[in-house]
Amino acid sequence: MYKSLIRPILFSFDPEKIHHFSFRFLKISQKIPFVSSILRAQFQVQDKRLETEVFGLKFPNPVGLAAGFDKDAKLYKELSNLGFGFIEIGTVTPKPQPGNDLPRLFRLPKDKALINRMGFNNHGAWEAAKRLRKNKNVLIGGNIGKNKITPNEDAILDYEICFDALYSVVDYFVVNVSSPNTPNLRELQEKQPLMDLLNSLQARNAKKPEAKPILLKIAPDLTDEQLLDIIEIVQVTKIAGVIATNTTISRENLESDNQKEMGGLSGKPLTKRSTEVIRFLSEKSGKSFPIIGVGGIHSPEDALEKLEAGASLIQLYTGFIYEGPSLIKRINQAILAKLR
Length: 340
What we know:
FMN binds at residues 67-71, 91, 143, 176, 217, 245, 267, 296, 317-318. With 340 residues, the chain is of the alpha/beta class. The protein contains twelve helices and 13 strands. The longest helix has 16 residues, at 191-206.
């Protein structure tokens, strides 16, 4: 029903406008009595065998929502009713910022992809923290970044501010230095700046009553040499793991008319590369740290490939938009089928 009826209607409108409309619809509709219960019955798969323990946290199932969809932690409860095992909010920055100029989100339907150049538009880490204080039982990741106006030499302070703001309301952190939509951000992926940033956050983490898992989200555009550096950095800084991968700046083999729009590409064209990165990190590190796999998951088969390549958990974003909420259920059912 989603792909044949609902998606064509949604895709006939501006992508960002329909995103906000969908948000409001999900929020308002689930205030109606019994709607949340009906959605949970329709989409959630309750089975102890799906429970996955990773970096000290117990996930009810391994299928999460990637950062970028619920940037400001406005809809995490409602989204969890669709069957996600965890929700990653953000990317949030210390100060609110509007992001890049419109238009900044583009569909590539022939490629089952999106291009975005949102630019970390969000209401700030402290506003997200206020909303998350109402959370009761949704496992939450906090994806953190720096403000656009903050020079790279001062970036550590931005990440520390976000860490302090979200510390008491998220279950794990994700350090985002891999978005292509904030000028010069990806320079922080270089070995020494990244080591300095992660060591600083780990030192701050150690002073808290209880250390929270910190993960690093990396770009799919890194070379093998750079990926080997990532492995060393994870092992030296002792962060909890890696999210592979963010969006790509590559535009290879695309068919859609608007393929040359600036920004990060997500969706089906990323399926193969993100799986390659997962497998490389898993094999070269000797499976020494957990990996959350994200990028081009549009079917249960795509999800199983990520898990078989070495991912402990997976996340959806573009696949969720193209395939609808039934994809979450179908992936969990496929995982259970593999266990038989």
